[in-house]
Write a structure and sequence with these properties.
Blueprint (H helix, E strand, L loop, with lengths): L5 H14 L3 E4 L4 H14 L3 E2 L9 E3 L13 E3 L4 H4 L4 E2 L2 H12 L7 E9 L8 E7 L2 H10 L1 E2 L1 H10 L3 E6 L9 E5 L4 E5 L4 H4 L2 H17 L2 E3 L1 E7 L5 E7 L6 H5 L11 E6 L3 E5 L5 E4 L4 E5 L9 H6 L5 E3 L2 E2 L5 E2 L30 E5 L16 E9 L9 E3 L3 H9 L2 E3 L11 E3 L12 H9 L1 H4 L5 E5 L19 H11 L6 E3 L2 E3 L14 H8 L3 H16 L7 H15 L1
Parallel strand pairs: 1-6, 3-19, 4-5, 4-10, 7-9, 9-11, 14-23, 23-27
Antiparallel strand pairs: 2-3, 6-7, 6-8, 10-11, 12-16, 13-14, 13-15, 16-17, 17-23, 18-22, 19-22, 20-21, 24-27, 25-26, 28-29
Helix pairs in contact: 2-5, 11-17, 16-17
Bound molecules: oxalic acid (OXD) and manganese (II) ion.
Length: about 575
């Protein structure tokens, strides 16, 4: 197989000349191809079959222990003008980056197969979808891309029809962390990633294309590429509202996207459209509409159990790829927080010893087809996507941010999004638990200068007639003893209900300097062991602490200098003045 599209054909030839593979395989996306690659990896030891009775068609992949997360310090945006990448990105001059990467790719696929993966981000028929082609020497990447994207024949046909695609070149190289670079060339719609097999670094459709490159394309074309889950909340009366929620990595997007209403919320239903990425367009109806460019989930495993996320727990029992989990003596996958079974082998394949740390790596992952999720919404395949009632930002903050508040209007909402800060997690290499600024949960993923990105966000006021409300949530408030104040998980539906009530104008709110906070009586806490005092602390706005927060945020904004939109500066000043009271 090859392609009628000459630029694609020529690019594959050019890459093959550089990398010198033994074979070239054009992926058709068929089940047979998936099965053959799984068989190949079982032979080479890249995959291990898990217990067939308890976990049919489930496989374990163990990555190199130095290659278990995204590497932000080795991730570059390579624009001709450094200022276009902005202070939020590491930058390399495009010519230097090409030279450096091409030297690494030189001959790197000798003895290996080069796989050509045509894929489509978004429903194949959607005008909002965009295509890409990933070239890789990793069969693990191919099978993951099969689960995560619409990959193969149909995507190739669309590419041949449209004639445009994002080029992604990937090699695991020799997995030497000293020779590892994830580079993006937004002006050329090109990605080059070398030396890592980890999801976010290697499955180029996901973070590299659907966020970093797509955010750049989106600005040029008038839409938004965001790090957001998409969820439908259906009331007992059968009315469904769609929400898109942006939280930093490993802050519970997957759990919220497939929430199971607790017994106290009988009659409510949650529909999952996406758990990580949303592309937002203004529809013909003047509303902001969301599609999920992905077709599968690459979720964090630890903590998943029948109570925290029964949908995920069920959906990963079969036909799933696990990366870096532990094993029980019966070869069932095991992870911290699974609540059943005992670990016998750890994620590095050693007999489990508590002294060696957790059995599953804290950033161990599952990959599954989204259709396996019991709460999967078939609208995820709808070419027009779904209209949004609300956009919800959130972070993991022990203190400060209340359980929920609403921005006063769109421009204030852009400020609320820009001011997201969160404690770091194991999804990226580096220290865990330190608060860092993560505007719109896009710090690791925005492919251009945040100042221009905020201007672009602000411009939607003129682009759409009917914009969603903007909210901020924090499920992670703790008391002085480090106990969570809010039960989280399924109970978060109670907060979503307040958000929907606000969108429908059904409840009032208390105006505070940071935004509109619920009246305590409007949050349904029936059946929860939450005292009035606890609810009060959850909804409290500590003016002194917020003043510090806003001062610190102001210093952060200063780094964007002249490019910072005046409107955002004004919104920031307005909040500071209100806090000064
Ligand atoms: C992810 C991440 O894998 O955000 O989704 O790191
Ligand atoms: Mn993510």
């Amino acid at each position: 197989m090859t392609s009628r599209n000459k630029p694609l054909h020529d690019w594959v030839d050019e890459v093959a000349r550089l990398t010198r593979p033994k074979n070239i395989h054009w992926c058709d996306g068929s089940q047979k191809e998936y099965d053959d690659l799984v068989a190949l990896m079982l032979d080479t030891g890249d995959l291990m079959e898990l217990n067939r009775d308890t976990n049919p068609n489930c496989f374990l992949h163990r990555s190199d222990p130095s290659d278990v997360a995204r590497v932000e310090h080795l991730t570059f945006v390579c624009t001709s003008d450094e200022k276009d990448a902005g202070p939020n990105n590491h930058w390399m001059a495009p010519a230097d980056a090409h030279r450096k990467l091409d030297a690494l790719f030189d001959g790197c696929m000798q003895g290996r197969t080069l796989y050509v993966i045509p894929y489509c981000m978004g429903p194949i028929e959607s005008p909002f979808a965009r295509c890409g082609v990933e070239i890789t020497d990793s069969p693990y990447v191919v099978v993951n891309m099969k689960l995560m994207t619409r990959m193969g024949k149909e995507a190739l046909e669309r590419i041949e029809r449209e004639g445009r695609f994002v080029k992604g070149l990937h090699s695991i190289g020799d997995l030497d962390p000293e020779r590892r670079f994830i580079t993006h060339f937004p002006e050329e719609l090109t990605i080059k990633s070398f030396g890592s097999g980890y999801g976010g670094n290697a499955l180029l459709g996901k973070k590299c294309h659907a966020l970093r490159i797509a955010s750049w394309q989106a600005r040029a074309e008038g839409w938004l590429a965001e790090h957001m889950l998409i969820v439908g909340v259906e009331s007992p009366a059968g009315e469904t509202h769609y929400l898109a929620c942006a939280f930093p990595s490993a802050c519970g997007k997957t759990n919220l996207a497939m929430l199971i209403p607790p017994e106290s919320q009988a009659g409510w239903k949650i529909w999952t459209l996406g758990d990580d990425i949303a592309w937002l367009h203004v529809g013909r109806d003047g509303r902001l509409r969301a599609i999920n460019p992905e077709a599968g989930y690459f979720g964090v495993v630890p903590g998943t159990n029948a109570k925290t996320n029964r949908n995920a727990y069920e959906m990963i029992r079969h036909d799933a790829i696990f990366t870096n989990v532990g094993l029980t003596a019966d070869k069932e996958p095991w992870w911290e927080g699974k609540r059943v079974g005992e670990p016998a082998i750890d994620w590095q394949g050693r007999p489990y010893e508590p002294g060696n740390g957790p059995a599953a790596h804290p950033n161990s992952r599952f990959t599954v087809d989204a259709k396996q999720n019991p709460s999967y919404s078939t609208l995820a395949d709808h070419p027009d996507g779904v209209p949004l009632s609300a956009i919800v930002f959130g972070g993991r903050r022990r203190e400060l941010a209340p359980l929920v508040y609403q921005a006063k209007d769109w421009a204030h909402g852009v400020l609320v999004g820009a001011s997201v800060a969160s404690e770091t997690t194991a999804a990226a290499a580096g220290e865990v638990g330190v608060v860092r600024r993560d505007p719109m949960a896009m710090k690791p993923f925005c492919g251009y200068n945040f100042a221009d990105y905020w201007s672009h966000w602000l411009s939607f006021e003129d682009r759409a007639d009917d914009l969603p409300g903007i909210f901020h949530v924090n499920w992670f408030r703790q008391d002085a003893d480090g106990q969570f104040l809010w039960p989280g998980f399924g109970e978060n539906l109670r907060v979503l209900r307040w958000i929907i009530d606000r969108c429908e104008g059904r409840v009032g709110a208390r105006s505070t300097p940071i935004g509109l906070v619920p009246h305590a009586e409007d949050i349904d806490v029936g059946g929860l062991a939450i005292s009035d005092a606890t609810l009060e602390s959850l909804l409290a706005v500590d003016t002194g602490k917020w003043r510090n927060e806003m001062d610190e945020f102001g210093e952060y904004l200063d780094a964007y200098g002249e490019r910072l939109p005046d409107k955002l500066r004004e919104e920031h000043e307005a909040v500071r003045e209100a806090l000064a009271g």
